């Protein structure tokens, strides 16, 4: 099954157009298909995510810093679709050990994880995605391996070094082997950790006859060509280097079918040959798309079971293109991937003011980026922390459009030549058939999505449940509040499935949220809040871990560095702040009237407070119950219904209980004397009573209200870098054992403006690497690095 990462929503629409239900004439099919495809793509954005971490080797007790890039899958420009990014660190069992929601602004955001001492030594995976991306398989999510060592815990290394099982898999070009039709067959050999292996192989038929010998070109991959015979099956005898031999079966041979072969070594042209042994085959269609953009749609009638399509490489977009053949019944029968190298290598030229520095010396980094959105890390290279192999350039052009990890992706881009081009072709040949079945989604219905883009901010979802039956319930109003002086409040109505969704813009930090239905009308409902993180996990290779015992001195140096940082600079690392652009006004913006009760004579009852000095609000009784009447100032008449009553932003539906509350706990009251619209709801005025601490101050909520500790968007932590500008600062006795000299998620490098990154070296000598990466305004992934030496 091919695991190409074509976007599923695009495929659904494509098949609806290709299906015969629309009565489209064959002669008009290509033009109409292109026009409708363009229209569809304009209304259905797709995203890719990349996360730049400061390094990839950590000790428990250190901080992992990261920059979050969210880009359009089609253009690679920073996307302003999702306002929230999800980041997790998973252990080897796919259990999340750390999670965060990152606020995004115009496609960019930043965050950090403190790695606690509860983490065991081992391999971890950092993965990232948006809520919109959860509509697609987890193979779409960004993933990056991390190593964490806990120097406080004991560790027993394995008694025997584990090399892992070896496997070799075969992938016919186009998808299938067919009797009597010559096929190119790609192969890939890896160990249990997904590491490519070297081996030799012999292709045998079911009689034991040797047909050919083969071995990988590079990265454990290669290909051969042979023609399956009638009634024969095939297997391979594999001899891995330094391991026991094994056998592997080739895919089954079909008696009838289609075979495609793509010849890319024709200068500016690509030739696609399709052969079939099915009698009476009519039109065959070729569709080519690059990153969701349809490039070619044409059809030809085969002659003697053969048809050839010619493509100008110039018509294809840069990156991975998907070439799919459909038969006359509009069913996909063959598929192949092709990679067109970008014209711009995306290299950032960066430099330092000199190559060698002393301790606590200033470093100036210069470069030219054309105003790109960039992040920069400077970290020490040693036997435990080698050069981080991941970068945004290779990820967006290659990894993001291929299922599963790509081993050493930088190899395919560092020195592009005949060998790397051939290796790239083998990599794409080994992607197999699609991860979805076209026939399962051939429908004229518009695609539906479970998860919506978070255009404004974090959306807290859940389900409205009838407490009497436990069943989801529709058409019930729900309310969500974040108690506090900064009033955050949202409403919604449960849909036909009982689902609720609260749009919580600018909700930062850890908070208690309170969710409830309107108990004034019915107390039979409660709201169950859903986990916003994805619970779908891909399968990872068995990458066994062993403590790096060969580097005890280096590990000790890392441990001392971590302990010194925590002992002397922990306060700086624990300072969090809200982004400057966050609006902290209440959800109703500015009230019409505000009464600070300490400015007035204090009364002992809430009724007296309202009657004596809260204007435009009237208190009355209906029988034994209190009712409040707000004045509609714009209309000049009182409202007929009660206003929305809030205590620290939490709706209070029992007016009698609120009137019994101690007014000496109230600091102020905000009043809106006008109709207020919030989502699908409207309120006849608002009274928000605010306590001194914003914590409800002992008010007893309705028992059907649910209070939950909830993590909003992560507050930002500032990377601390000492300043040694003066001799006195440089002479400080505080030790400086930083192995990460600098981290800046929003760095600017412009030689013309003489805008440069400045930082200071630490007391640790050694070689350091400076890594800068990001996205240009035109959507070009950019990557650059250089090194510097620090000497005593």
Mean pLDDT: 88
Output the strand order for the largest sheet: 2-8-7-4-5
Task: Indicate the low-confidence ranges by residue numbers.
Answer: 1-13, 15-25, 157-163, 434-445
Structural class computed from helices and strand pairing: mainly beta
Helix content: 10-25%
Percent range for β-strand residues: 35-45%
Can you count the beta strands? Answer: 49
First-to-last CA distance: 57 Å
Shape: globular
Put simply, the count of helices is 10
If you compute it from the alpha carbons, what radius of gyration comes out, rounded to the nearest whole angstrom? Answer: 32 Å
Biggest sheet statistics? 5 strands, mixed
Comma- or semicolon-separated keywords:
single chain; 792 residues; mainly beta; Immunoglobulin-like; 5-stranded mixed β-sheet; 49 strands; 40% strand
Give a verbal description of the structure.
With 792 residues, this protein is mainly beta. Among the domains are: 166-340, Sandwich (Immunoglobulin-like), CATH 2.60.40.1930; 458-530 and 580-712, no CATH class. The protein is 11% helix and 40% strand. It contains 10 helices and 49 strands. The strands form 14 sheets. It has a 5-stranded mixed beta sheet with strand order 2-8-7-4-5. It has a 5-stranded mixed beta sheet with strand order 26-49-48-28-46. A 5-stranded mixed beta sheet has the order 36-42-43-40-41, with no helix packed on it. Helix 1 packs antiparallel against helix 2. The two termini are 57 Å apart. Residues 1-13, 15-25, 157-163 and 434-445 have low confidence and may be disordered.
